[in-house]
Amino acid sequence: MSRAERHRLSSLHDVELATLAAAGDRQAFGELVRRHGSAVRGLLRRMGASASEADDLAQDAFISAFESISEFRGEGAFAAWVKKIAARACMRRMQRAKRLRDLTAAGADDPAPVAHPDPGGRMDLDEALKALTDGERLCVSLCYGAGLSHGEAAEALNLPLGTVKSHVKRGLDKLRARLAPEDQSVEGRRDNG
To answer: Is the terminal CB of the chain with fewer CB neighbours within 10 Å at N or C?
Structure first.
């Protein structure tokens, strides 16, 4: 691809690129992958996938997106659309892994790791997310990591809206408690603000 063609594609809006991709322009779809691949992999990591799993799932999501690009109507952001596809793929993989664990394990789950700020005062959101239940992590990741509304997350996860809202609230409460500085409790902050 020439420099002029790369520049032309990089100047187009996602909806224009999706339209070109639906007409068979693979380079236009490649530009969409270049723009949104990192964000999709980041979402998958926040949902609990390892780096290599996130790469595999992102690739699968973009292949699925390419195969169904004509279904993207531009009513929402392309990034949100492909993130929904990726989230569904991640959930299917998690469900398969859970079924396998259930078949092979004696039923005892390991307790969730506790996230603490490091001595330098930095907090590790990824570690804190690991302490959430799968449902809480998925809902928080979709609503805050992918920017989906509660309704969109409910649709993507095939869950009732109330369940998604409950998972988000509980997940955020747990994250606030885990990520709060040790000398400041969540209750103290509620009383003051």
So the answer is: C
Same topology between domain 1-109 and domain 112-179: no
pLDDT, tens digit (0-9, with 9 covering 90-100), for 159-188: 889 999 999 999 999 988 888 776 554 444
Sign of CA dihedral 30, 19, 79, 8: positive
Structure tokens at 38: 């990192």
Q: Are 79 and 142 in contact (CB under 8 A)?
A: no
| Architecture of the 112-179 domain | Orthogonal Bundle (1.10)
C-alpha of 47 from chain center:
6
Report which of 23, 22, 26 is spatially closest to residue 5, judged by C-alpha positions: 26
Show me where the domains of the chain are located.
1-109, 112-179
Q: Which CATH class is domain 1-109?
A: mainly alpha
CA 102 vs CA 34, 94, 131, 188: distances in Å? 38, 12, 20, 40
